[in-house]
Amino acid sequence: MMKMFPVIAAAAALSLAVAAKPAQARVVVGLSVGVPLVAVAPPAPPPPVYEAAPPPRPGYYWVPGYRRWNGYGYDWVAGRWAYPPHPGAVWVGAGWVHSGGGWVWRGGRWR
After folding, report:
1. Structural domain count, the chain
2. For labeling, which of 13, 24, 53, 64 is most exposed (least CB within 10 Å)?
3. First-to-last CA distance in the chain?
4. Domain carrying residue 11
5. CB contact at 8 A, 38 and 29
6. pTM assigned to the model
């Protein structure tokens, strides 16, 4: 049952997202094990917000904030300190890439 929870939760979130979006907004979400969710937004994202990182935390990496598409526009998601999953892991940043008439979100990951 615990193995199915992420799939059930993602399906529930997707159904809520689809029901809440107007016809002119286009959001595409893909599910794949080990691959971040991908969203497609019609308009270009605005520039990132400058945010000063809080004081460093030993052993943590600063993961910068980003613009998240909400179906109507972009919301700012603040940066955060993240603990690497294993020694030597490095954060590979996320970003929006222009593709197929819209903007595709490529999620960050640990490498």
Report:
1. 1
2. 24
3. 29
4. 5-110
5. yes
6. 0.59
